[in-house]
C-alpha cells in the first residue's frame, strides 16, 4: 500500500509540477514572461523603421493615403500601417518608442527608448536625404547627447536593444551617382565597414543587444518588378542584396567574436521576403496576398510617387481597396500586412536576444 501511495504522490507531484511549468510556459509565450529584461528599444536607420521623424511639411509619409490602416491617418510611417519597429517593440512587450522628433511632446514614451530612424537615411549622405539631412552617424550623435544629458542611465542601456535598419538608400545613391559595376564591391565594403564602426560606437555607449536588418531583395521591390508588369523579380539586382548581406554576416560574426557577453543578430529580411513569395506561389489560394510583387499604392505618372499630388492638388496615385491583400504598400515599402508576414518569419531570430 505504501508503495502505491508513493507512486500516487509522485504522480500528483509530477502533475502539479507540469501544471506549474505549464502555467509559466503559457505566461512566457503569451506575453514573453522573460522579456522584462529588455525594456527599451533604440532604433537607428531608414524608412523601414521610421515612425515619424521626417518633416510633416515635406515628407509623403505624412500625407494621404499613408497610415490608412493604422492609426487611421498619416502619422509619419512609410506604410498604410505598422512598420518593423512596431513589431519588434511588441515582441519585447513594450510600447513603440517615441520618434526622436516628438520626444518633448510625448516625453512619457521615452521610457520605452527612442526611435532615431529617418526615412531616406544612409550610413553616408544620400540622394533623397531626410529633411533635415541625417546620416546614421548623426542619429548616434543624438543618442550620445541624450546619454550625456542623463536621460538614460547605465542600467537603462544594459536592458536595451538597438534595432538597425540600413543600406537601401546608400545603394540608390551609388546608382544615381553613376557608380560603376567595377566599383561596386569596394562600395559595399565601405558601407559595411561604416556600419560596423557605427555598431561599435553604440555598443561602446552601453547597449549590449543588437538586431541588424539584412537588406531585402532589391530586385523584388515594385520599383524593379514594374518593368515585368509585377510578374517577376530582377535576379541581377538581387545579387546586390545577396552580396551586401554576405559581407554583413561576416561583420556581425566578427562583432560577436570580439564582444563576448553581447549579442548581435541579423534579421534576414532577404529570405523572409523570398519565402513569403514562394509560399504564395506554392499555395496561391491559401495566402492573403493577390500578387505579392504589386504594390497597393501605385503612381499614375512615373514623375510622381504614392502620396504625391500635382500642382493642382490632384492625387497622382491610385490606392487599392484592401491594403491587407497587398504585400507591398508602395514602390519600396511593405504594407502593414506584408510587414507582419515578414516579422512572423523573423520572430525566431529575435529570441536569440534573450540568450
TrEMBL record:
Database matches in Pfam families: Lipase_GDSL (PF00657)
Gene3D superfamilies associated with the record: SGNH hydrolase (3.40.50.1110)
Molecular function GO labels: hydrolase activity, acting on ester bonds
Keyword Oxidoreductase: no
Entry keywords, A to Z: Hydrolase, Lipid metabolism, Signal
Domain of life: Eukaryota
Signal peptide extent: 1-28
InterPro entries: GDSL (IPR001087), SGNH_hydro_sf (IPR036514), SGNH_plant_lipase-like (IPR035669)
One GO-annotated biological process of the protein: lipid metabolic process
Family statement drawn from the similarity comment of this UniProt entry: Belongs to the 'GDSL' lipolytic enzyme family.
UniProt name for this protein: GDSL esterase/lipase At5g03610-like
Organism: Nelumbo nucifera (Sacred lotus)
Amino acid at each position: 500500500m505504501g508503495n502505491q501511495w508513493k507512486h500516487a504522490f509522485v504522480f500528483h507531484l509530477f502533475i502539479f509540477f507540469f501544471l506549474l511549468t505549464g502555467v509559466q510556459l503559457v505566461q512566457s509565450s503569451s506575453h514573453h514572461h522573460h522579456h522584462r529584461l529588455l525594456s527599451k528599444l533604440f532604433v537607428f536607420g531608414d524608412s523601414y523603421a521610421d515612425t515619424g521623424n521626417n518633416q510633416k511639411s515635406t515628407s509623403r509619409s505624412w500625407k494621404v493615403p499613408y497610415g490608412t490602416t493604422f492609426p487611421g491617418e498619416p502619422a509619419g510611417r512609410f506604410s498604410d500601417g505598422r512598420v518593423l519597429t512596431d513589431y519588434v517593440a511588441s515582441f519585447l512587450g513594450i510600447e513603440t518608442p517615441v520618434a526622436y522628433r516628438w520626444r518633448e511632446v510625448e516625453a512619457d514614451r521615452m521610457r520605452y527608448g527612442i526611435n532615431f530612424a529617418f526615412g531616406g537615411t544612409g550610413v553616408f549622405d544620400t540622394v533623397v536625404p531626410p529633411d533635415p539631412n541625417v546620416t546614421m552617424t548623426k542619429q548616434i550623435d543624438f543618442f550620445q547627447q541624450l546619454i550625456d544629458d542623463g536621460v538614460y542611465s547605465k542600467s537603462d542601456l544594459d536592458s536595451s536593444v538597438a534595432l538597425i535598419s540600413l543600406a537601401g538608400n546608400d545603394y540608390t545613391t551609388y546608382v544615381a551617382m553613376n557608380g560603376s559595376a567595377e566599383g561596386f564591391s569596394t562600395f559595399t565594403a565601405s558601407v559595411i565597414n561604416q556600419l560596423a564602426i557605427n555598431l561599435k560606437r553604440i555598443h561602446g555607449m552601453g547597449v549590449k543587444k543588437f538586431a541588424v536588418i539584412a537588406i531585402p531583395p532589391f530586385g523584388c521591390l515594385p520599383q524593379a518588378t514594374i518593368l515585368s508588369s509585377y510578374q517577376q523579380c530582377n535576379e541581377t539586382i538581387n545579387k546586390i542584396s545577396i552580396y551586401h548581406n554576405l559581407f554583413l554576416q561576416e561583420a556581425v560574426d566578427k562583432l560577436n567574436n570580439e564582444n563576448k557577453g553581447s549579442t548581435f543578430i541579423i534579421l534576414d529580411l532577404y529570405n523572409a521576403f523570398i519565402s513569403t513569395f514562394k509560399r504564395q506561389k506554392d499555395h496561391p489560394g491559401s495566402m492573403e496576398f493577390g500578387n505579392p510583387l504589386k504594390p497597393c499604392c501605385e503612381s499614375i505618372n512615373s514623375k510622381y510617387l504614392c502620396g504625391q499630388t500635382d500642382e493642382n492638388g490632384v492625387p497622382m496615385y491610385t490606392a487599392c481597396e484592401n491594403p491587407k491583400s497587398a504585400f507591398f504598400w508602395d514602390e519600396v515599402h511593405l504594407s502593414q500586412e506584408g510587414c507582419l508576414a515578414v516579422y512572423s518569419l523573423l520572430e525566431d531570430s529575435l529570441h536569440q536576444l534573450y540568450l
